[in-house]
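Shipment paperwork, digital attachment
Item: protein structure file
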Amino acid sequence: MDIISSLPLSTILNSGFALNSGRIARIIQARTLEDASHMGLVDRLFDKFLRKGGKRAAIARLYRQISQPGTGEPRDLSPAAVVARFMQLRAFANSEYRSAFQLALRYDPLEQAPWSYLLQIGNYRIYQSPPLDYRLDHQFAEVCTMKVCQSLDDALMEVHDQLTPERYIQSQVESMADAPAVRQKVLAVLDDPAYGRANLVRITDSDDSTCFLAHFRHDVLALANRCATHDEFRGRRLKTALLETDYVDLRALCRDSYLTKEDALLKYLARPHLLQLVDYIGDAVYRPEVRQLLSGFPVGKTTACELFNLAQPDYGDSDGRLAQPDYGDSDGRQARMTQ
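Attachment content:
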């Protein structure tokens, strides 16, 4: 399979050896390195004398990479552990191939334990789980969390070209001022240190309630004072940034929250994925194990845990609520098939 032998996988394996889908499936499900690297007699001889042990070395390195080295051989592979290995493998692939690594949740209402999952690389089925009963301790919440992280990663890859600093700064400027003339002025002076924090004297109200006035030593800017209904860079948020951020010019001010938890575009992209996770698992979204997975999933300069406005995982505190978003009437167990 080209997708397995492609960079950066071959680089991580330290060889150009290609592992087929059957071998990848075996590695993901293996409980020991011996199990992962098992080969038939002919294959062993071929590898020893013609490949100089290259296949076994590649298998061993990949197994250690995806099975969390240092934790010892697992006595039992939970559903979440199998998915975690697959997601680690997906993380090795570059953006050209990552979307081919898919975790699909399946729902069969006729089964006593209706949920299961499928791991797939392109058209190759790597693993089909047995039925999972979410009422029992089968780590259903963790599996769903990794599925949502994968979906969020796919969404971010689709808009990757739009997530540039230049586009972000432009969107910030468009939020900062309602008047076209003020926007044009802000763009013209983005790199002027005269508009840095050191030269901001005060902020006052304007006769026009839709504006507030930012007084710099040599100039005054009439900036948007309307409510930031979707975390736009205006109103209270803009005032706070002007007063509390250490910026050398307006470009630095506009870019300060780029790819952070305050990035409105990231919040917009993350919102449906949070709703999907709550749809799957309900209040289990606050469990430390779930928040641990979300906090380990990087999104720009932040994490999925912060974007979802959940507290950082603390196993001494099982609540984990920072805010109580309105999730609707879902009980977290809707019968749906997610591909």
